[in-house]
Amino acid sequence: MNQFQESSDEQTIISLDARNIRLYRDMNQFQESSEENTEMITYRNIQDLRAVGIKFKSSETRRLTDIDFSEGWFAAKLTLPEIVVDDNTAASFLNLIAYEMCPDFENDYRICSFAVFMDSLIDHPEDVRELRSKEILLNCLGSDEEVADLFNIMSTNVLPNQKIYHEVRAKIQKHYRNKCKTWIALGIHTYFKNPWAFIAFLAASIALGLTFVQTWFAINPIEKK
To answer: CA nearest 107: which of 159, 167, 32, 35?
Structure first.
């Protein structure tokens, strides 16, 4: 019985290793095939993305495929599915990740990929707080720090499918590296955090414009005929 169990365990380990090796090989092949059109991901979390004008919106669904990125002239929007985090979330995700890694289950590693993608967005409690404020994440677990730690732990030693979310990641990185949009968004994020700051800026601009007009007419008066 023990010999059979040991043999079975060895076969399972070999099968898992084979799947991981195959996934790793596929990942390298995909990276090589898209290397010319792919930039290295340099953003670290949601706070980094907010600083360059990326806003967050709920897809109002809980489908993991409902992740999208769109951009305008200066701002951009990342749409994410709703996530409920409670006492069962860690166990549910870890069980699903383990199920995806089973040697007899052929799949596209979507849960693993989603966990890694969310880990790339969430580092600190401030990231969780931002998602809560946009009604993307419902925290029924406890503190925001616990939720951040949960996502960081779930993706440990997990190999994602690089093809999933590749397009979204590439669009985010392209916007993140755009210096012009970054500077404008950084200025707006720094100086216009609330509507009163914008109103004050608008009033100052109008006052400056009126002063310029008054000065110009004082120097160049209109001649009366």
So the answer is: 159
In 3D, which of 118, 113, 91 has the Cα closest to residue 100?
Answer: 113
Chain-centre distance of CA 149, in angstroms?
Answer: 16
Which stretches of the chain score pLDDT less than 70? 1-39, 74, 181-195, 197-198, 201, 223-225
* pLDDT at residue 36, as a whole number: 47
Asked if 47 contacts 130 with a C-beta cutoff of 8 angstroms, the reply is yes
Q: Residue 186's pLDDT is what? A: 66
Q: Which two tokens stand for residue 84?
A: 């409920």
**How far apart are alpha carbons 62 and 116 in whole angstroms?**
17
Whole-prediction pTM = 0.70
Say how far apart CA 193 and CA 5 lie, in whole Å.
Answer: 62
Pairing mode of beta strands 76-80, 68-71: antiparallel
Q: Give dist(CA 151, CA 130) in Å, integer.
A: 15
Residue with tokens 């960081």: 152
Evaluated on CA atoms 112, 143, 44, 186, the torsion sign reads: positive
Of 105, 131, 106, 107, the residue nearest 118 (C-alpha): 131
Interatomic CA distance for residues 217 and 18, integer angstroms: 82
| Phi, psi for residue 85 in degrees, rounded to 5 | -110, 120
Look at residue 185 in the predicted model and tell me its pLDDT: 63
